[in-house]
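Lab meeting, item 3. Inverse folding demo.
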């Protein structure tokens, strides 16, 4: 394992919708893995974090 290895992500949150009754916000989360120039969309931060964890562990 290379201890100097770097894995970088850009995470963007875009407000997708707001429920009128509850005020609950729904986000569209775009994660870009910089080294692969690969973008993936998620609806929850948990899904995005899981994706980044997988990438980081496989690197």
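The presenter then showed the designed sequence:
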């Amino acid at each position: 394992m290379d201890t100097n290895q770097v894995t970088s992500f850009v995470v963007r949150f875009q407000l997708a919708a707001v429920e009128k009754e509850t005020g609950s916000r729904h986000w569209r989360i775009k994660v870009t893995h910089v080294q692969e120039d690969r973008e993936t969309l998620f609806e929850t931060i948990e899904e995005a974090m899981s994706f980044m964890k997988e990438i980081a562990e496989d690197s």
